[in-house]
From TrEMBL:
Cofactor: Zn(2+)
Positions of the Peptidase M14 domain: 118-439
Keyword Protein biosynthesis: no
Secretion signal, residue range per the UniProt entry: 1-26
Pfam families with a match to the protein in the record: InhA-like_MAM (PF20773), Peptidase_M14 (PF00246)
Catalytic activity field: Releases a C-terminal residue, which may be hydrophobic or positively charged
UniProt-recorded name of the protein: Zinc carboxypeptidase
Superkingdom of origin: Bacteria
Function: Carboxypeptidase that possesses the specificities of both mammalian Cpase A and B. Thus shows broad substrate specificity, being able to cleave Cbz-Gly-Leu, Cbz-Gly-Val, Cbz-Gly-Phe, Cbz-Gly-Lys and Bz-Gly-Arg in vitro.
Organism: Micromonospora rosaria
InterPro entries in alphabetical order: CARBOXYPEPT_ZN_1 (IPR057246), Carboxypeptidase_T (IPR033810), Peptidase_M14 (IPR000834)
Length: 1036
């Protein structure tokens, strides 16, 4: 497989690296060459920088351009100048791509002005719309023109049905295939593919026997431009890189960077499943729209799927040279009908389209609300997405022509060259026709590679941990009389009926129209037995068929109700350890015994460094304790820095499958899943018998953090988040649920004394609220007992004030202080903040009541500066917050019309005290405001306030920790004139973000430390409480 090295979150420090994205909901109109017009940028980024780029809503799936010697990702992406400047302020410096000395966008504008030779718009005279109409008129017996719907702007979306007697044969009566393209407007090579394929079959009907036979028996439907508005828009000045449709999201009557919906994220199936596979933000390139199937283009295509009932759908996109299929909303999720997809698409060594890489859809990136999944799940249509060639690949295809890869403005901009376009289409035609030829018998496809589909794909394993054992096989649904057979220790064969597995809690119930997973049961075995298993059935018109046979051995350590999954990697390299067996499994087993549970052990090192099989091993247990001991990175002999063993992913997927079928898991280890948390920094080889030994090897793929985020409830992993500055772990104590009352100290007497690293977690529900994302419900139930308050908890008492997160916001918390009889005054308050550096700010505003002489005041403790930052240079005082002109000059100097600029930005590093001198207002009444101001896009966690005091002549005259609803005399006063009301404002809160040493979901408990690091009594207590949480009942 070709890797997609796109890290989507890095290991972070406790406070300060959590810059989270909520792109802007409105922006000024874009002009060609302006700060909001699209430009091509390039750069080389580390994992954390790639995450910040992803957070802008950029289309990162197509951004990767390889890695350098240090394993950093080379990217090419499309951004506005404003977005690039904002990223630069966060330390992500990208350069405008240069093509022959010119900015990429300028080169595009010049090319557009000169005109295109091979490409045409949809609506121009003689454009694709006219061509479709003329083609149908020329072939009245083979074609029928359909207007399947209209676009946002009312343009007809035209499809052509091609088959013998197309106008008289009812739609869908014959096996049918749909070829579609241009959901994404800038992908110009795709309508060329679809329309030229249409001409190919029409032009060869009657002369080519194979095509004649195909059109006599099969319906081929061609939909060259699914997004006519967006496609036409890319032919206008400055808009060649536009991706979405033309929904006017903000209703301002203009199409700017905040407008448009990604039509390949708008379908109802898995719409909005998470915010990674699609975005809720209108400015994002993957904005999913205001609701499922909200767009007229989506409705039109959905109705066509429903009306015709296609067997196959090929959805052409660009640009990545991939052949994608199957499940895309979750990484590494095979499905039964993948048997068919693989037969047609091929594999890395022998792909159906030369130079393309066939694989599961999520190899490129996860998607939800996508077209292929919806067509498959809702309408039974098998979908492929070919990602056609990049500009660079096409330009390099002929060393003797005038095209050079370095002249490519963007990977999306396929060369305007008839010969190269024709060659790209030609190499795709055999695969396209093989899909058409498979429509009559989808489960026995006609592969251009000569591949056939097996009747059985058995899920084999070599070890069972049960006397009774389920065995699964992916089986062709058309088979009759399917049974499973087994032989124990060479004895007489026995037969078991099979039942279809209907899927688990999250997956396994889709993409199974022609194949399904069926299971039989082996009974009556004992430890040490050897069992041979196979499946049989009857194939219509063929007769009896049988699967391959496999043999497993029943393990000797079975019968417990909890499994200790010891993946300590003592025979691995990171770190090098002594011995060959797990060191801490016995301690955990002893704690399980204390909790009244029986247990078995699966020792990864003893079992040949192999992951446990989900059915063969894990399925036999009520719960699993997955412990990693002293391991840091699961790494095999011969591997190097930046790599990880394949078993790291395989173990994760086995545990995920177990959870999907109702399992319960406790994860323990001082570095448990550390490599995954680094999200793209460690590479593994997904297939073959060898491990990844070079992180730059293109056959290696990155370990990602999806399992931690979406199954374990840890959205952010904070490395050493429970460790004090001297390297000593903080104590831990239970805070909720079954963990209330638990206390423990790591490295206490009687423990292993090995806890030299900890982790803290921010719960997934802090970022994906459970009312909208119930599938990810999670909470932090055990705290690190740090001195003082945790950075996201109230400093004192039970309440604090929280700013919330919103773009384009001006949030004031105001109070009037009477200093008419005073000689001095002071404001003191505590704050913990995580603010987008140099773009968003916290300020303390002040003015004499009854005047307009506003200014901002400095913090005497040194937390403010006079740097006006990047947002000033981007014009926010003109466009968003004109009131800031009081403090910032037109040249972004820190002096405005009435006052000076003093502000805090970035991360506070926990709770800090501000001291603001009010003595300049002695003898007057002064209104003060603690204010949070944000720009167009990108949010940190926000600002937290507690323990505010006003001191007059040395005496505290007002004090509050916001325990009461009256806010202690403070007022949420709203934005000043000129700033729009925000999406939210200051609110009292008891906890805005859950952070802790342990995060739980209904089915999992994830520890930021190792159980072996607790004293025996504390370990016993925590194990018992964890099992009570997972399996119910009381502690022993």
């Amino acid at each position: 497989m070709r890797p997609t090295r796109l890290a989507t979150a890095g290991v972070v420090t406790l406070v300060g690296a959590l810059v989270l994205t909520a792109p802007a909901s409105a922006r000024p109109p874009s002009e060609a060459g302006g700060r909001d017009s699209l430009q091509v940028y390039v750069g080389t980024l580390d994992a954390g920088q790639v995450e910040k780029l992803r957070a802008t809503g950029a289309d990162l799936g197509h951004a990767r351009r390889g890695t350098d010697a240090a394993g950093r990702t080379r990217v090419e992406t499309v951004l506005t100048e404003r977005e690039a400047a904002r990223l630069a302020g966060q330390g992500v410096r990208l350069d405008v791509k240069k093509v022959r000395g010119k900015d990429a966008a300028q080169a595009l504008r010049e090319q557009s002005a000169a005109g295109w030779t091979a490409f045409r718009s949809y609506s121009e005279p003689g454009g694709i719309r006219d061509e479709i109409t003329a083609t149908v008129a020329r072939h009245p017996k083979l074609t029928k023109l359909e207007t399947i719907g209209r676009s946002v702007q009312g343009k007809p979306i035209l499809a052509v049905k091609v088959t013998k007697n197309a106008r008289t044969v009812p739609d869908g009566k014959r096996p049918a295939v749909l070829y579609g393209s241009t959901q994404h407007a800038r992908e110009w090579i795709t309508p060329e593919m679809t329309r030229r394929l249409m001409h190919h079959v029409l032009d060869n009907y009657g002369t080519d026997p194979a095509i004649t036979r195909l059109l006599d028996t099969t319906e081929l439907w061609f939909l060259p431009v699914i997004n006519p508005d967006g496609y036409d828009h890319t032919f206008t000045p400055g808009n060649r890189l536009w991706r979405k449709n033309l929904r006017d999201n903000d209703g301002d009557g203009q199409i700017t960077s905040v407008d448009g919906v990604d039509l390949n994220r708008n379908f109802a199936t898995k719409w909005g499943y998470d915010d990674e596979g699609s975005s809720p933000e209108p400015s994002s390139e993957t904005y999913r729209g205001p609701g499922p199937n909200s767009e007229p283009e989506t409705k039109a295509l959905n109705q066509l799927f429903q009306r015709v009932g296609f067997e196959y759908f090929i959805n052409y996109h660009s640009a990545a040279e991939l052949l994608l299929y199957g499940i895309g909303w979750q990484v590494s999720t095979p499905s039964p009908d993948d048997v068919i997809y693989r037969a047609l698409a091929g594999d890395d060594a022998n792909p159906a389209v030369p130079g393309y890489d066939p694989d599961l859809s999520a190899e490129l990136y996860t998607t939800n609300g996508d077209t292929d999944s919806h067509a498959t799940v809702r309408h039974g249509t098998l979908g492929f997405t070919p990602e056609m060639s990049t500009c660079e690949a096409a330009a390099a295809s002929d060393p003797d022509d005038q095209w050079r890869p370095e002249d490519c403005v963007s990977g999306f901009i396929f060369p305007d060259d008839e010969r190269l376009i024709a060659a790209e289409v030609a190499k795709n035609i055999p695969f396209a026709l093989s899909v058409a030829n498979s429509a009559a018998t989808p489960d026995e496809p006609v592969s251009v590679l000569g591949h056939t589909t097996p009747d059985f794909v058995v899920d084999s394993f070599d070890t069972s941990y049960g006397r009774t054992q389920q065995v699964a096989s992916n089986i062709r649904r058309s088979l009759k009389n399917v049974q499973m057979h087994y032989v124990v220790n060479g004895g007489r064969p026995k037969t078991s009926p099979v039942r279809e597995w209907r899927g688990g809690e999250r997956y396994g119930d889709t993409h199974d129209k022609y194949y399904g997973e069926f299971r039989g049961t082996v009974r009556g075995t004992k430890p040490g037995d050897r069992v041979e298993v196979w499946f049989t059935g009857t194939k219509p018109r063929t007769g009896p068929v049988a699967s391959e046979r496999f043999t497993y051995r029943v393990h000797g350590d079975i019968g417990g109700d909890v499994l200790v999954l010891a993946v300590e990697d003592v025979t691995g390299l990171s770190p090098a350890q002594t011995g060959t067996t797990a060191k801490y499994a016995d301690e955990i087993a002893a704690s399980l015994t204390k909790a009244g549970r029986t247990s078995d052990v699966y020792d990864f090192d003893v079992m040949g460094r192999k992951a446990p099989h989900p059915l063969g091993v894990l399925s036999h247990y009520q719960a699993v304790v997955w412990e990693t001991g002293d391991d840091v990175i699961l790494r095999s002999p011969g591997q190097v820095a930046g790599t990880a063993a394949r078993a790291a992913l395989e173990t994760e997927l086995a545990v995920r499958d177990y959870l999907n079928e109702g399992g319960k898991v406790l994860v323990s280890g001082k570095y448990a899943l550390f490599a995954q948390s680094a999200n793209g920094s460690y590479m593994y080889r997904p297939e073959g018998t060898t491990e990844c030994t070079d992180p730059d090897d293109t056959t290696c793929l990155p370990l990602l953090n999806d399992f931690q985020q979406y199954y374990l409830g840890a959205y952010n992993y904070v490395s050493d988040g429970g460790t004090d500055p001297d390297g000593t772990p903080y104590p831990v104590s239970g805070a909720a649920g079954a963990f209330t009352g638990f206390t423990g100290q790591l490295n206490a007497p009687g423990s292993a004394g090995n806890q030299d690293h900890t982790a803290s977690f921010l719960s997934t529900s802090s970022f994906l609220p459970p009312d909208r994302f119930p599938q990810f419900a999670s909470s932090a139930t055990v705290d690190w007992n740090r001195p003082g308050a945790a950075p996201f908890d109230p400093r004192t008492g039970d309440w604090y004030l929280y700013s919330g997160r919103a773009d384009e916001a001006y949030k004031r918390l105001s109070k009037t202080v009477d200093l008419t009889s005073a000689t001095s005054g002071e404001l003191r308050f505590y704050t913990s903040y995580d603010i987008e550096p140099e773009w968003d700010f916290m300020i303390v505003e002040a003015h004499e009541v009854g005047t307009d002489t506003w200014t901002t005041l400095p913090d005497r403790n040194g937390h403010t500066s006079q740097d006006t930052g990047e947002s000033c240079a981007s014009g926010w005082a003109n466009e968003l917050h004109p009131f800031l002109a009081h403090y910032q000059g037109a040249d972004c100097s820190p002096t405005g019309t009435t006052g000076a600029w003093h502000a805090a930005t970035g991360a506070s590093g926990g709770w800090q005290e501000f001291s603001v001198d009010l003595s300049a207002y002695a003898g007057k009444r002064v209104e003060i405001a603690i204010t949070y101001v944000s720009d167009w896009a990108t949010q940190g966690l926000g600002v937290f306030l507690d323990d505010a005091r006003v001191i007059v002549d040395g005496t505290v005259v007002s004090e509050t920790s916001f325990e009461e609803a009256d806010l202690g005399g403070w007022t949420v006063s709203g934005p000043p004139a000129g700033s729009a009301p925000g999406a939210n404002d200051w609110t009292r809160s008891q906890q805005a973000f859950e952070e802790g040493a342990v995060v739980v979901t209904e089915d999992t408990v994830y520890l930021g430390f190792g159980l072996e690091g607790l004293a025996p009594a504390a370990r016993d207590d925590l194990v018992a409480r964890s099992l009570a949480h997972l399996t119910g009942g009381s502690r022993q």
